[in-house]
Every structure is written in structure tokens, then in C-alpha cells.
User: What shape does this take?
Amino acid sequence: MLRRRAQAAGASQNITDGSVPDSGDGKEKSYEANVTESKQDSSPTKRSRKLGSSTRWKCIDSFCWFNGWICTVALALLLLSKILPNSLPGYVTEVITGPLPDPPGVKLAKAGLRAFHPVVFVPGIVTGGLELWEGRSCADGLFRKRLWGGTFGEVYRRPSCWAEHMTLDNETGLDPEGIRVRAVTGLVAADYFAPGYFVWAVVIESLAKIGYDEKSMYMAAYDWRLSFQNTEVRDKTLSRLKSTIEMLKQTNQGRKVVVLPHSMGALYFLHFLKWVEAPLPMGGGGGPDWVSKHIKATMNIAGPLLGVPKALPGLLSAEAKDIAVARSIAPELLDSALFVLHTQRTVMSISRTWDATMSMIPRGGETIWGAFDKSPDDGFNCSVNRLECDEKKSCQPDMTDLSTGQEPPLDGKSTSHYGRLISFGKEASKMSDLALFNKRIKGDRVSPIKANSSCGDWIEYDELDRDELRAAVEGKVFTAEAAVDLLRFVAPQMMQKADANWAYGIADDLDNPKYQHHKYWSNPLETKLPNAPDMEVYCLYGVGILTERSYIYKMSALNDTCSIPVQIDTSAEDKENCLDGGAYFAEGDETVPTLSAGLMCAQGWRGKTRFNPSQSPTFIREYKHAPPANILEGRGTMSAGHVDIMGNYALIEDILRVAAGASGHDIGGDRIYSDLLKWAEQIPLKL
Amino acid sequence: MMLRRRKQQGSASAASEPVKPEADSHHSSTNERTTKTDINGLQEDKKTASLVPAQKPQRPLKKWGCMHTCCWLIGCLWIMWWTVLVLYNTLPSLPQYVTEAITGPLPDPPGMKLAKEGLQAHHPVVFVPGIVTGGLELWQGRPCADGLFRKRLWGGTFGEVYRRPLCWLEHMRLDNETGLDPPGIKVRPVSGLVAADYFAPGYFVWAVLIENLARLGYEEKSMHMAAYDWRLSFQNTEVRDKTLSRLKSTIELLVQTNDNRKVVVIPHSMGALYFLHFMKWVEAPPPMGGGGGSGWVARHIKAIMNIGGPFLGVPKAFAGIFSAEGKDIAIARQAVAPGVMDTELFGLQTLQHIMHVTRTWDATMSMFPKGGEVIWGDLDTSPEDGFDCSLKKERAEEISVCESQELNEKQLDLSGKPQTHYGRMVSFGKEAAEMESSKIVRKTLKDFNRGNLPVRANVSCGEVWTEYHEMRWEGVEAVVEGKIYTAETMLDLLRFLAPRMMERADSNWGYGVADDLDNPKYQHYKYWSNPLETKLPDAPEMEVYCMYGVGMLTERSYIYKPSSNNDTCYIPFRINASAEGSSEGCLKSGVYFVDGDETVPALSAGFMCSKGWRGKTRFNPSNVASYTREYDHAPPLTLLEGRGTQSGSHVDIMGNFALIEDILRVAAGATGEELGGDRIYSDLLKWSERIQIEL
Assistant: This one.
């Protein structure tokens, strides 16, 4: 920048040089010489003073000038954007991409749709805002400011203070003494997660176009860190939701409510459905027909009804694929003591106090997620562009008859064993020798060691002997069931809390009185749907994005006692078999595998089953992913990503139609692009 | 971009004279040439840059220098701003530290103090905000409001008022006939605590109270902001938004989720009337009411703590509707910039726009003075007669507005001072305001039949139509000749001037005193917000508090003059801001003042609690306990205190520590007796005694 300006100045100097008299020219020349060599000087004092001022100009003033220039330009641009009509960005986009389709709200409003059923949003994990109501002295001035969501400004400004306030009590799973962090309420709780990053905003705006306002919309915000029952214990959130739904029905001419849970909200609302009809004090005392009287439809958007495999590495080693891949990109930086010790330990110590993270551990064990040798979605073909496949119907994966338990043909391509959710070592993930796997980890340990206080934030790995861990896991593979046992082994305290709040199994006998306990309420395989034959259940989710399904682990190379001893082996690559960066991929929406989002609607609840005794109709609506055509489209109107799907026009249109009174059949019944039905056939779920 | 263009210019001109630099270097000495060839481009650039100051006298460079200086200056300011900002953020306790250094240690905020005493959250709390303070946001609008979906039109920064004023006015306006949204526009109240915690950034309304309650352990589980669209008539908030139903449901939920503890309701300003309306609505049978049945209030409400509630209305509302001006505008026109304010731009556009918009808001008419001459006084007497505003003023602000030496020159009454006729709500001319009533010659409006008068110009005034335009000049003259209007005749005057508006007003509000409260007509909702035409609900255990500031001069009656502008589009009446006097009423700029909180006279805020509802009366048949708590105004000592912790003014009282302490104690379970019962600084009891009302 400086150079450019100087060139310009130099150029103009050249212009003037011609017109000035010779004396001035000579003076200038000598001045130049003075700058470079300080050899020729006729009047040293004067020159040096000049020189001094000019050097000062060089440094600070150039900096000031540069800043000023940037500011001026920024202000000018800002002014320009304010003056120009609001439609300009839209206009530019239209010039480039051709006319845009009407947003679904406008389109359906033109088609005559009007607000009918009141709508309740149930946000998922992470997307809801949290604000401070009472804190330690380090958080002075943050009263009712967002700690989570918004700009996250405080994370950078006072990170340790922020971490302290986001942590929950390890024993109770509630607030620590003297700290109160509460969910933001109202539509603002989850319309935007961060400025410009919409979650519900597009859906809300579309609904408003056909006449919805706050009289007929409600955001059921809750503290997504707590276990579902604790949201009632601490904040009365379930009671408030019950009362609000009753009021919505009453103030909207007795019309039933359409509920839109997103992500973990689907589990939360399942829990609510059981809670509201259960008798006091554990339940809400609404009576056996509350749901059928108040709920018209539950439209689960990307609900991880059977859990997500991603939850396992999150709990085991505080990493997701993204972090693991980042580590492989910059191994020195991320493996450095600083990062591993501080960030990852902190993340682990905080997130493990959040009971809700354990709600998403895969449920249904080997029946759903597959055993050592086979899993329902084995043979999934991820090596070609599947979007084209679906259209041409020419490149179906080379399916063998997996139901017989046969190994795939020996043509050099071995299928991935998705059922092995966690394998220590790439070889283990492919081995076919079943004898190795029969020994399972039991939850008991040999010798708990004292916590090492020098490592900063306490995590449960500090109490685990490394050699014992190595002996227990190395070379082994873990299915969905065994992975839970593994977690019980490495983190007994955490899993004690988890087992008090969540269940991961499949019920043998749903009438067993033990299933009246609230810990089973959010597991669709251990509860019945309420007695509401008119209620429609939708599973709406995206497909066409590779989604993490199982992981290859290794023992951490660091011998440091403070590090987390296991990590994803990002060097494991096998593109042929969907293995990339230490994770096997399957069909899904980038976070939730299709199996988890769709199976209940396709099989578990389809027709009259023991999980759905009153035969509530279910509908599956899949949305095929298409990335945004260009940058101007932002996050795309056809995206199927876990959160971006909230801006998918087709999804919004379906929601609007149902909210305006349509039934599942009116909007076209099932629409399935994936192989979900084929997979469902192979799952031996007792119905 | 600008820079690049300039560079191109520079290089272009350099290219047009390519020989010059060459020649230049030939002239220079040998050793310089060698250095010049040795150094790289960057150094050369730096060198030439350093030469810029030396080239000042030449023209092209001078232009450069200006740009330089500008950029440099902006950059400097920018950097300084950021440095200060960073410093400010890194030293969070600095402002407080500075304040403490100047004023000595601050007292603990009441929340902290009471938390130390061991007070805990007990009763759930409901806030009912007043007029104007609640935010409104856009849900559906015309094309001119594109991109404002769910953005605040009212409250917050008011950015849109400046950016697209006409569009903003169009969206804030309600339908003239229905009092609801115009077709195609949906403006809705913001919900949640954010609706009225701050009115504008930095201007708190409920925020201080919320923060102090939070220190006792309150959170959103036990606090609720009953936000409503304050432009609508109270019953219409239910018709359009179901606001009353939602409030009922929320209060039931609060009681249920807080171990069946009753709710403490805290209405502010017009919220007090809104909640009166709610209490009648909730027990009335559907469809007009909420169907809660008698006993609902007794089961759910522990106390109503009205803050600055204008139970009997505010005289300011007359001035606002009559000529769209408050005292502030009138003074601004007279004293500050008479030329500017009377120009077309302000006089015609602004005031008429304001009048046009506010007249569509039914709620503004809820605050007309109620109770007529019984409460507000007639031509000769009024309850506040004899109020000594100069003493009050001295005690409160140590600034004497009314010069005492002038008193001697004036006509004096028995108490040694010229008498103010507060009952004359609006007088045309100072003489009319001061004369004995027997001497006044005036015509009554009944002499004119409005219908017979030809309609005054109304087309040429464009969009800014007010009902004045339908009136002939003779009508205006008749109004002026009427000379004096009391609270009752003022209503007649408005009915004469703005019949359509008053038609809506009369269908939504009652302004009288009931003769027989058991008359079935009082079951209509229009009477529900007038405490003189309803009974308090049957809830003997409930407590009613009237909490308000005193010690500030509050507008009570006005001196008007016909507008000097003969333009037919002009609002024909103006407050006579040149009328100054020294009578008891402290006449200043055409306005007489009494004791109050700057907006609501003490009589309006306190009369019901000190007399109308005190003990078992016909307005309070179940003998609900009532308490009057006054807060004497003390201005902030220093600028650093902001709006003060002892303020008694209408909105700033929400930050008054004594008031907050009272509220916190009641919320934590105390009764009115435990607070200390009544605390009265003004002459309220004396005034109440003078009011002849059947109890």
C-alpha cells in the first residue's frame, strides 16, 4: 500500500520536475542524496530537521494514513450500501444466476395458504443461546449477556472465566454454586446462532409470510446442556412448554399444534411426549389423551432418533472429524503440548459435565448399528458421485447378500464394517477373525490412581492407568454396545450420570414397569408413542452428504501423562471403502446417518408396532443435497446439511403446507432417495 | 479503489513524459546515480515518499497533501478510538473506580444489600410496561420496509425514523376506523424481558429492577414481561394478539411452577390502567372476558405495585391530542428556535404527522383526565389550590423558577398569592386563566352546530390529514371564544373538534364517575380501566400499592392561543408559550404546574390509594389493603451517576433505590405494613379531603 502511494507521489513528482527551475531541482537532488548517503550537505541543520520530520512521517503517519484510508473506504462503502436499494444484492444475484425462485413463503402465500395450526419450534443441541444470570466476579457486567451464541465475544476476552461459567456441576449435572446460566427465551433464542448464521430465521420468516406471528409461534428454548428431566427440575421448562401448547391451542381457535423439533430437539420432544402424560410428580400429569388433544404433527428435522456415532469420539477423546483432520494438516501445532493439554482437556472437562451430550450415544446396540461382521448399511458406495447414481440408476453398489453373514467376494474390495464403531488400528477394522472380538470390556478397573493435579482441568483419564488402558483396547474393535462399555471403562463417573439419565438399549417388554422411569423416555426403542392415532410423525432429513459412521483409533503417541491417551488415527485412508481421515463414512446429512434419522419412521413406528401401538401415521421426507451454485447463494436453498437444511426451500414448503393444514398424504407421503428401506429390511427389530 | 485510480493517473502522466525521469537522473552526480541503481524499488518508493512534504507549494501535490491530511486525521482518530476502547474493555471496573474516587463509595445496590440480609426470591413477578416504553417490531410491511422483518420500528436505535421517515410513519399508523393494523401491515410488540428492559441503548426502563431481582435469585422462570401493543385499546390487544389470554395463562403457569406462590404484579405508567382492565377482564365471563370466574384474582395475585400509575389520567394527554405538543415542544418553539419551529418543515410537517399518527392510537385516549370536575376541579376551585410550587422547587432542585419579588406586584388572594385556577384545564389567554369566573364572558360550544358548517379545506394538505381540516374557521373561532375548558368540557371540546376520534375513544374508554356501580352497563369493557367506574375484584388478601415520585413540577393546565398561521393545513391552536407568571401554579411557557413526577400529577397517581380505595368503599367493596408510597425527587449529584438513584421522575424512578428496595421486599414476601405503610411527602391527603366523592 505504501509503495503504491509512493509510486503515485513519485510519478507526480516527475511531472512537476519538468516545470520547476533548476535550482529547485538541484536542491531536491541533494536532498535525495542526503537521504541515502548523507554525503553532500550544504546546510546540515536544516536538512537534518527536514529529514527527521520525514522519517516520522514514514512510520506512524503512514500507519495513520493507511488506517484512515481503510476507514474512509469502508465508510463510503457502508454509506453506498445503505443508500442503494435493499434489492441490490438480489439484483446482482439475479443477473448472474437468472431469476431466483420465489421463497416458499411468498410462493405459498400466493397460492392462498394461510396460517392455520400454531407452530412450536424445539431447537437442538448447541444452537440455542445461553445467557448469564448470576456469576463470579470475573464475569461482572455480563448480566443477561449471551455466553453461548451471538458473537462469542467473551470466549476470546476472558476464556477461563467463560469456561468456568459454562461448566456444570460434575455430580448433579446442574449449575455450580453461585453460577446461573440460563437459556435465552423467545424466538431470538435460536433464530440466528451467530450473526448471519441462521438456524430458524428462514423458517420463521417463511411462516410469517403466510400470516404467522408470535401469537401462533413459540420457540421452546431449553438449556441444552442439561439432561432433559433436569430442565424441568431446574427451570420448569417442560411445564412451561405444556402450558404454552395449551395456550396456543386455546388462543388459536382450538387448533392443534404442529411441533418442529430440530436435531436433539427431536429427542427432547419425545421425552416431553412421555413426560406430559405421565402422572405427577415425575411427569406432567396431563392425562392419557393430552397428546392426541393438543398435537397435530411432530415434524422431526434431522432428528438423531437412534443417536449419532459422532458422539462417541466426542466423549472418548474430545474430537470430531474436523479436529482430527486439522491435526493431520498441522501435526506440529496441534500435537504440541499447548493445544492438546489446554484446549482439548478443557473441551473434554467442560463437555463431559453436560449430560445432554450423552443423549446422543448410538442406541439400539448391535441390532441397529451392526455387529462385528455385518451392519445394515454395509456396502454403501461412496466412491462415486452418488447424486448422479441416483438419477442414472446405473451404479448401484455391488451388494452381496449380507443377510447370510457372508464375507464380501474376494475381488480385492473388502466392504467396510460399519458395525465396528470404534476400531483400534486399521487392521482391526477389517479383520474377519471373529474369535478376537468375543472378549468384552467389563466396567471394573484394577487400580484407580490418584488424580494428577498438575495437568490443569481434571478429566477422568487422569485416574486411569495407561498400561491398563492399552491392554484393554489395543487391537480390539467395539460395536455400538461395546463402545458404551468402553466409555464405562474409561469414564465411570460420567457414565454413571449417563446411565441415570439415558438408556441405549432396546426394550424386550415395553409394559415392564421399569420403563416408566424418565431415563427411557427419549429412547424411541424403549418407549411407546403416545396414544394419539391422529398425530402424524414426520422424519425430515437431508441425504447425499458423507456422514461419519465409524472410527479408527490409536493410542496417543505422546507419553505425557497429561494428554488424552487415545485419538483418532487420521492416517488411516482407504477411499475405496469410504475411509477418510480415520473415519468411515456412510449416507446422511453430515452429522446424523440416514439410519438414525429415518429408521423409526420407516420401520420402528411404521404401522401398528409395539413402539407405536395406536398406529400414528409416519412419513419420511428426504431432501437430496445440492451444494449452493455460487457464493451469492450463501448456504444454499437446496442444502441438506444438518443445520443448513433449515434453509432448504423444499423442506420449508413441506413445513408450511402441514402448518397450513395439509396432511402427510397431501404433501406426497414418503419421499426416499437413500437405501433406507433396504437397510431397514436387514434390521431384525422385533416390532 | 480510489488509490488505484490515482496511481493509474500518476503512471499515465509519467508515461506521457517518459523522458523526464531519465533526464533527471542524468543531471545528478555520479555517486548518486550508482546508489540509485543499487537500491531496489521499495527503497526508491520510500525516498520519493519522504520528499512529499518538501514539494508542498506545487499544485498537484497540494491536492495530495489535503487527501493525506484527511486520511491521516481519520486514521489517527480511528486508532485513538480503538486504543481507548481497548483500554476501557481491559479495565472493566474503571468507570466505577472513577466514580468512587469522586463521590466516595457508592451504596450497595438494593439487590445486593437485601441478598446479604438473606432475602430470597419468593413470589413470581410480572412486569406490565407503560405506553411508549415497549418495543414494537415489524412482521409484515409494505415494499418500502423490505429487510426490516422482525426489526424494531419502535425502541432500540430508531434508525429507520431517520432513514425512511415516511415509510416509518406509514407502518406506525393504525387504521382510523378499526384502531387495528392497516391492511398489509403487521407491527407487533416485542416479547420477553427485552421488550422493555431498555427503551434505547443505555436508556434503562426495567433493566435495573430486573438486575436487582436477579440478585435475589429471580430468573425467567419467575419473571415475566407482559408486553403488549401499547398503541391499541386494551380490549383490542386481546382481539388481535390474545395478549390478555396469554397474560392469564402465564400468571397461572407462574403460580403453578413456583410452588403455588401468588404473583406480584408491577405495572408502570399506563400499565397500571392495563392491569386494572386485565383484572376485570379475567373474571368476566366469555366472550368479552377471560372466564376466570370470581376469585381468580384472589387466587393468583398477591400484590399490585403500581409505579407512577396515571389512574385518573394525565393533563398532558389533552395537550398531546389537542395540538400534538407537550411542554417540551412548546418551550423549544418559544425559547430555543422560534424561527425554526414555526417554519413549514417543523410546524406543518412534523407536528401534523405526529398528530395524524398519534390520533390513530386508541391508547393515547386512555389517559385523558378521568372523573371530570369532581376530581380535577371546576372553574373556581380545584383540590390542589394553594400549592406552593416555589417552595417545592427550592426544596427539590434549589433553583427558584418563580421569582418571589414578582409576587408582590400581582393581585393576591387571601393566602397572599395570586390564585391559580387549576381546574381550568385549557384557557385561551392568560387573562381567562386568572380572571374570576363571574367576570368571564364566554360562549359555549352548544351555540355552534358543527354539522351546519361547510367543510374546511382538506384535499390540499396531502397525506397529513387531521380532523381540523374538516372544520371551518368559524369553528376555530368558536373554540377560542369558549375561553375556558375544564376536564369535562374539554372532552366536549374534543368531541366537537374531532368527532370521529372521540367516537372511537368513547367506545373504548369511560371518563366519568359512576353513580351506581351495580348498573349493568358497567359490565362493558370500556369502563374496566377507569378506577372510578369499576370495583376492585373480590380479593381481600390482595394489596394495592401506589408508588410514585413527587417533588417535580408536573403539567396541570395550559394556556392556549389560536395559531398565528392562517394556512389551512395548519394546526389551529398552540400552547401560548409566552405566557409567564408567578402565581402559585408557577406559570411558565403557558403551562401551570403542580406536584408530581413530571408526567403524572400526584393527585392522579395517589388519590385512589389514599382515598378511593382506602378501606371499604364502593370502589373497593372487599376492603383490599392499599398503600401510598411516595419517593421524593433528588437529582443526581454528578454526571457520573447517570439518571440518579434517587430520582422521582416518571421513568427514571425505575432506577430509584428506595423504590426497588420496596419492590424487592414485597416480592420476597413482605406485606405493606412491614414496609412501613404509607409514606407521603406531598399534600395529597389535604387534596384528597377536598374532593367531594361518594365512597
Observations:
- Chain A touches chain B through 85 residues (CB under 8 Å).
- The longest strand of chain A covers residues 545-555.
- The mean pLDDT of chain A is 78.
